[in-house]
Amino acid sequence: DHRKHHALSDREGDPHSPHAGHGEGVLGALKGFGHAHVGWLFTLKGMERGREYGRDLYDDRLVRAIDRLYLLWVAVTLGLPFLVGFLVGGTWERGVEAMVWGGLLRIFLYQHATFSVNSICHMFGRQAYRSRDESRNNWLVALLVFGEGWHNNHHAFPSSARHGLDRYQLDVSWWVIRAMEKVGLVWDVKRPGADQLARRRLQPEA
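and the corresponding structure tokens:
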């Protein structure tokens, strides 16, 4: 669905656009925001399960295995806080408290921060680079999701591993990728050159 979003971004067929097909005015904007933020997860409309836009991932046995075991990973991320709370606190109550704070609340906050990239970052912020959609750079979302909020940058240069393209743009995810590249854990890491940035730039670097 991520690749489909890029192929059809903010046009009919985009699985989580706040703009396409939600009507005009304030009501249309609210409907679009809700759909882009979380509503799209509750519909199968336009879902190909990777067969068209992510065939390489769909054919990767490891990726498919991880996908099939999704509920197991969720159970582990809830079970581990419970276990730690139970072992440290010595009671079932401490285990449940740890699961709520270290599991459920963590998932809730993380998910909504991530959802904000689809909703907020297609409605509010700056467009520093030319793209074919309404993607925006939003510094607050970028802080919450370690650089993913530089979303206009991502849409202008979708193959770039670095989203914080300007000096002031904090991008913790890029720091991790760069460190992994330096020690040989990842390779062929792509980032745009200065000439590519200059050609697509709409606004001067702040």
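(Above: one complete record from the training split.) The chain has three domains: 1-48, 69-116, 128-206.
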